[in-house]
Amino acid sequence: MSDSKPLNEWVKDWEALQRQYLGAWSDMLQKMPGAAQPAPAFSTPFGAMPAGMFGAAFGAMPPGMSGGAFGAPPAPAAGWPEGFEQWSRMFGAKGAAGGAGDTVERMLEGGKAYVGMLKSMLGGLGSDAMGAAGGNPAQAWLDAMRGGMGAMPGLSMPGMDAMSANPFLQAIRDIAGQGAKGFGDLPSSFAPFLEQFREQNLSWLRMPAFGLGREHQEHYQRSALAFIGYQNALRGYNALLLKASQRGLELMEGKLAEHSEPGRTIDSPRALYDLWVDAAEEAYAEIALSDEFGKAYGELANAQMRLRAQIQAEVERVGTDLGMPTRSELDSVHQRLHDLRREFRDSQRGSGAIADLEAEVEVLRTEVARLNSALEALRLDANAAPAKDKAAPSKAKSPAADATVRAGKARSKAKKASAKRVGAKAARAAAEAVPAAPIVPVDAKRKPARAGKRASAASARPRSVQRKTKDRRAQRRARAKIALVEQDSAPAARPTSFGDAIDAMRKRVDRSTKPGRLKSVAAQFVGSYKSASSRKRSGKRRSSK
Amino acid sequence: MNPVRISPQKAIEEAAKFQQKLAAGMKTLRELGEVEYGATEKEEVYREDKLVLYRFKGKSRPTAKTPILIAYALVNRPYMVDLQDDRSLVKNLLALGEDVYLIDWGYPDFSDKYLTLDDYINGYIRRCVEAVAKRSKAAKINLLGICQGGAFSLCFASIYPEKIRNLITMVTPVDFHTPDNMLARWVRNLDVDLFVDTLGNVPADLMNWCYLMLKPVRLNQQKYIGLVDILDDKAELTNFLRMEKWIFDSPDQAGAAFRQFIKDFYQGNKLMLGGLKIGRESVDLRNIGAPVLNIFAEQDHLVPPAASRALRGRTGNDDYTELAFRGGHIGIYVSGRAQREVPTAIHEWLSAR
After folding, report:
1. What letter does residue A162 receive in the DSSP assignment?
2. Averaged pLDDT of chain A
3. Residue B160 has what pLDDT?
4. With an 8 Å Cβ cutoff, is B110 touching chain A?
5. Which of A55, A438, B68, B119 gives B142 a disulfide partner, CB atoms 3.0 to 4.6 angstroms apart?
6. C-alpha to C-alpha distance for B200 and A331, rounded to whole angstroms
């Protein structure tokens, strides 16, 4: 305000202008008929209004709005915020096109709060308050807000109804008003359930329940207690919001003081509003980062979830009674579906391993082809020097000893390979699969050690059991014999050259389908190839000597 | 001296002007059609459940040999990176010759409530990375993770270092327990099991309420009062509405994934402290062998800079670069400065590797 004018005069001017403005506003609205004819262009204290706009607006008004809303415009004394209500009715969520409805609603809510606050800051105060505040309307407003908050029954209410005059809390409440469901709000569909809790006398909540209906009674008791718990948590949370609001006023005071110097004074309502926003946010951040707020926030969220869970259980019970599918049933199905999908994915990842192995085998095949060519070349070399080659076999080890060495080497190679992919199992398989190694059935190896024990145990058994045991033993022997015959016949099929051995290996690889089998074959191949190569090299060295 | 010197005439004029702008703006608002978003042409290259993997098409063929896969957060829609023609990280990267892919997570519904972080990271992201690698015939790809998607990317790069050539994180929280992390302080006392068991999926409205409550007056009131100032500018208004759509066009959060994210990241701070497991896989940031470019916003109220900066010295590669952007969590994609600075920085950093 101007320093040159007495305070009372300032307030009078302000009120007069406000009346003038709102009077013009009311006139404008009254001149706007509820009918849909386009309104002529008209002038207001704030300039010319486009005619087409209002015609279009009225054309799009919701039914029932046109006459009533504009037939009774707010009295000038009602203030600017009410004007926003009318804006909202004209252009709000239902009126705005292009998905901008929510934004318009938010904007109008913000605008309403903004001018409402300015009104209370600049014009809503009596001259007494202004005088007490030393002629500073903002200070008077701060004092009034602080005084009002002190008198507010802040700790006796679960919501913020008593705090509607507080712009900070109003801003927070507006968030919920715009559809966002926070922890301070419960879905409206919960209302019928909550109503019964409100009506209940707390005295019965701790009473034991009996008989057929005891489970139901206990459920209702738990629900009512959850509701009370939620109210308490909400009260604690709101108390901290109130504290943040009060702190905001303190900070605002400090910020105003910073603007007392010449050249830094605030000369527009918007600047004053922005300053208040800065103070309010700063204060809120201070409180919201505190442990106390974190606990209150967590407790509010938890309390609301407890209450929701109780109500959901009740809905589920009713749904079951009515033969409706319930949330739990669907959850159960979804969970099983997800479990199955994970199993399937796991098995797919397993088959991915097979694909990796197949790719590895493919690489090995290429290598084998290359080696075949190299071997062929070596064979030609060997044919070119027969005398030297003949000397070599005399120094060679016996087949059994050679096989043992090869098996040992294969084991050691396979063990090294296991560091990468091939495990100890593959190493054993590689050792067992060396063609020249004499294969002895496991039973045969253990037989001498177990024979005595078996004989003594067998003599203690009934004759029929002994016969069956004998039969089974005979079957095992027969199987072992077949295995031995197969092994015995193996030398007949033994490859005559390394290339043949590779071919045989390839065939075995082709027959293999299981990943473990592939691993073992791959390891076997590596083992036999390396031992063959090493034999060849040693042969060459010997022949070169 | 009295700090407030507002003449009644000026106050009335300002209020009247406000109303006047509002009136004129209403006309503009009514004339606006549905806001559109997404500036760059894209093709679908892979689809699974509600997820779609897109490849963006630039005006010319990409010159970069290694493609970039963008993994966005689950809590908002990924079209923020390609919001409109003059505000598009994607478009700018394409113009610089990069080959850009994007994971669109879709909108989870109740049938997705049992999706876990294992499903997202070892499942969806892994398969997307493989799909991109296969399509581009690259053994490794560049991964660009944004916000929560950045945290996922760190996990992925730790579990599958052999699949990632370079890792870029944008506004990514690593240390969830910095003193200025308001969200982290709020959820520390949350009984997340009760929360998820009750809600199933976490509703988008509830998430948005939490975000608005970070700065309740600024985000819920002051912003809209500021909107009145641009109501007469159709282009600006369209931009505002597009951004507004993005802010509130939020998917619900799959319950099981949310549960683990809150427990292990926000409450346990395991990405920072260790002990994090995604499915059967352990996450250790030291396993990240790829060079890292960590971009954060200096005025970020959702992911404080300190939360992002914590990545320094924690990966397994000394090749670590930080880029501090002067702006906020959203400005880092859509501000004018972001268009000039961020894509260029990413491109140059990648080109040097």
Report:
1. G
2. 65
3. 97
4. yes
5. B68
6. 9
The answer to whether the Cα torsion of B148, B150, B156, B158 is positive or negative is negative
DSSP string across B190-217: --HHHHHHHHSSBPHHHHHHHHHTTSHH
**Cα distance between residue A121 and residue A137, in whole Å:** 6
The tens digit of pLDDT for each residue in A452-475 reads 444 444 455 556 666 666 777 777
> Does the pLDDT value for residue B146 go beyond 80?
yes
pLDDT of A470-498, one tens digit each?
777 777 666 655 544 444 444 445 555 66
The top-scoring range by mean pLDDT among A166-170, A345-349, A361-365, B188-192 is B188-192
The Cα A53–Cα A59 span in angstroms is: 10
**Which two structure tokens, joined as six digits, stand for B345?**
């920085």
At A150, is the pLDDT very low, low, confident or very high (cuts 50, 70, 90)? very low
Cβ contacts of B125 within 8 Å, gap of 6 or more: B71, B103, B152, B153, B156
Ranges A67-71, B54-58, B196-200: which has the least confidence: A67-71
Q: Does B179 touch chain A (CB under 8 A)?
A: yes
Q: DSSP character for A125? A: S
Closest among A204, A543, A179, A199 to A383, alpha carbons compared: A543
Residue A53 pLDDT > 70, yes or no? no
More confident residue, B320 or A135: B320
| Contact (CB, 8 A) for A111 and B15 | no
Let me know: does B259 contact B196? Beta carbons within 8 Å. yes
| Contact (Cβ atoms closer than 8 angstroms) between residue B137 and residue B146 | no
Alpha-carbon gap, residue A214 to A196, rounded angstroms: 18
Q: How far is it, in rounded angstroms, from Cα B36 to Cα A421?
A: 52
pLDDT number for residue A449 = 41
Concatenate the DSSP letters of all residues of A215-272 into one string.
HHHHHHHHHHHHHHHHHHHHHHHHHHHHHHHHHHHHHHHHHHHHT-STT--B-SHHHH
Reported ipTM: 0.91
Task: Report whether A288 contacts A241 (CB < 8 A).
Answer: no
Please tell me the distance from the alpha carbon of residue A109 to that of residue A84, in angstroms, as a whole number: 8
Lowest average pLDDT, out of A112-116, A338-342, B196-200, B286-290, goes to A112-116
Partner A, chain B 267-326, Cβ-Cβ below 8 Å: none
Q: Which of B128, B140, B146 is nearest to B71 (CA)?
A: B146
Give the C-alpha separation, B171 to B154, whole Å: 12
- DSSP class of residue A213? T
- Report which residue type is found at B322: E
- Which DSSP string corresponds to A331-385? HHHHHHHHHHHHHHHHHHHHHHHHHHHHHHHHHHHHHHHHHHHHHHHHHHHHHH-
Q: Using the beta-carbon criterion (under 8 Å), do B17 and A289 form an inter-chain contact?
A: no
Report the range of poorest mean pLDDT among A30-34, A308-312, A476-480, B53-57. A30-34
Contact B69, B135 (CB under 8 A): no
The string of DSSP letters for B42-69 reads: EEEEEEETTEEEEEE--SS----SS-EE
Identity of the residue in A280, A305, A327 whose CB atom sits nearest the CB atom of B217: A280
Chain A nearest-CA residue for B222:
A110
Backbone angles phi, psi at A418, to 5 degrees: -65, -25
**Contact at CB, B190 and A312, closer than 8 angstroms:** no
Instruction: Tell me the C-alpha distance between A429 and A38, whole Å.
Output: 94
Q: Among A151-155, B170-174, B263-267, whose mean pLDDT is lowest?
A: A151-155
With tokens 């709102």, the residue in question is A22
Longest dimension (CA), chain A: 132
Show residues of chain A in contact with B5, CB under 8 Å.
1-3, 265-267
Query: Is B147 annotated in the active site?
Result: yes
User: Would you call A456 exposed, middle or buried from its count of C-beta atoms within 10 A (0-12, 13-18, 19+)?
Assistant: exposed
